[in-house]
């Protein structure tokens, strides 16, 4: 990708992050119908999309599937870390941002949302990187 295209791709990625970050935080505070599902499960998809977009912003030259797969594996490892209780992890979990990043309870159904979020992140990044879309901006 040339300089102007990389600039446009980064701008689109930043705009995407400005959309997904509030959506992800909102999912933690949502109190409408199915709030428990939105708060505890759907947010995992937003989490995957966020980290995928952020990694793509920082490393636009890496293949998209490698970014998404790496984010998925790290997220799964973080999910398993929730089975481990130690002082340091519990300290970080005592803060909202710590619970948001590393979680506080292991749930096998979260993996479904990580897969869905990873797939969504992949296609979102493909759309951003698609030169036909970027040319028109």
Explain what you see.
This protein has 137 residues and is an all-alpha fold. The protein has one domain. 79% of the residues lie in helices and 0% in strands. It contains 7 helices and no strands. The protein has helices at residues 3-29, 35-58, 64-81, 87-93, 96-102, 110-129, 131-135. Helix 2 packs across helix 3 (64-81). The chain starts with a helix and ends with a helix. The relative contact order is 0.17.
Helix content: over 70%
Structural class: mainly alpha
Strand content: under 5%
The number of helical elements comes to: 7
Largest sheet: none
How would you summarize what this structure contains?
By secondary structure, the chain is mainly alpha-helical. It has helices at 3-29, 35-58, 64-81, 87-93, 96-102, 110-129, 131-135. Helix content is 79%, strand content 0%.
Descriptors for this entry?
137 residues, mainly alpha
Strands, helices and their partners?
Blueprint: H1 3-29, H2 35-58, H3 64-81, H4 87-93, H5 96-102, H6 110-129, H7 131-135
Helix pairs in contact: 1-2, 2-3, 2-6, 3-6, 4-5
